[in-house]
Amino acid sequence: MLKIGLTGGIGCGKTTVSCLFADLEVPIIDADDISHQLVQPHQPALQKIQSTFSEEFILENGQLNRAALKKYIFSNPLAKQQLEAILHPLIFQEIATQIRQLENAYCILSIPLLFETNSQALVDRILVVDCDELTQIERVQKRDNLSIEQIQKMIASQASAEFKKNNAHDVLNNTKNRSDLAKAVKKLHNFYLSLSQNYTTHTCDFPDYLRIST
Ligand SMILES: Nc1ncnc2c1ncn2[C@@H]1O[C@H](COP(=O)(O)OP(=O)(O)OP(=O)(O)O)[C@@H](O)[C@H]1O
Ligand SMILES: [Mg+2]
């Protein structure tokens, strides 16, 4: 199965693009969704987070206090590494499991930090969603109610837009309106369908280092 890695900067439109592909009945595997599911109450990953970090990151209802943990790891590189060591192998294992269950021509793997986690080898092709930085900041501000400074810090903590575009096979520019984006997605969909004819469905070929023992 042809695997398209979808990535792009914060707020550039990854989720919006995923929805447009889903409308075309393309299966979407979303690393963000998976990471949210992994830290639900009673999940082993949440228990590991609880024992590695302080109890203060668990709310009274047993849910992870995402905002507090996100803030903590943002200014603590070691904690960020520890958190990634807990979550990344589990995320990639779940991605591999979901791929094995599919029989479609191609699928979209939405991995926001595809470059930052060096996961390029997991996919056959990389699709970057991009938009100009002012639009990006405006959209995130409207959606998340954050200050411009906070958003700029988040953008600066990710691989640059230039790097992402230079290392993509395909780029979707999402600076304009949604209907332009939908047209561009439809065009890419037809292209991916034609490419997929050269791929045969095979078992997932993730490298061994991404497998974890259970
Ligand atoms: N073409 C567009 N025109 C206007 N608003 C848009 C457009 N594309 C996306 N948006 C809006 O911009 C915001 C960010 O888009 P979206 O959530 O798809 O980005 P994302 O890359 O998934 O963000 P994140 O990195 O936070 O997951 C959303 O509120 C979305 O509705
Ligand atoms: Mg998103």
Any overview of this molecule?
The protein has 214 residues and is α/β, with parallel strands linked by helices. The chain has one domain: Rossmann fold (3-Layer(aba) Sandwich). It is built from 9 helices and 5 strands. A 5-stranded parallel sheet has the order 2-3-1-4-5, with helices on both faces. Helix 2 crosses helix 5 and helix 3 runs antiparallel to helix 5. The longest helix has 24 residues. The radius of gyration is 18 Å and the shape is globular. The protein binds adenosine-5'-triphosphate and magnesium ion. The site of adenosine-5'-triphosphate has 15 residues, from helix 1, helix 6 and helix 9.
Strand adjacency order, main sheet: 2-3-1-4-5
- How many structural domains? 1
- CATH architecture term: 3-Layer(aba) Sandwich
Mind telling me the CATH superfamily name? P-loop containing nucleotide triphosphate hydrolases
Bound molecules: adenosine-5'-triphosphate, magnesium ion
Oligomer: single chain
Features:
214 residues, alpha/beta, Rossmann fold, binds adenosine-5'-triphosphate, binds magnesium ion
Q: Helix and strand layout, with pairings?
A:
Elements: E1 2-8, H1 14-23, E2 28-30, H2 31-38, H3 44-52, H4 66-74, H5 77-100, E3 106-110, E4 125-130, H6 133-144, H7 148-156, H8 161-166, E5 170-173, H9 178-196
Parallel strand pairs: 1-3, 1-4, 2-3, 4-5
Helix pairs in contact: 2-5, 3-5
Compact summary:
The protein is an alpha/beta fold and 214 residues long.
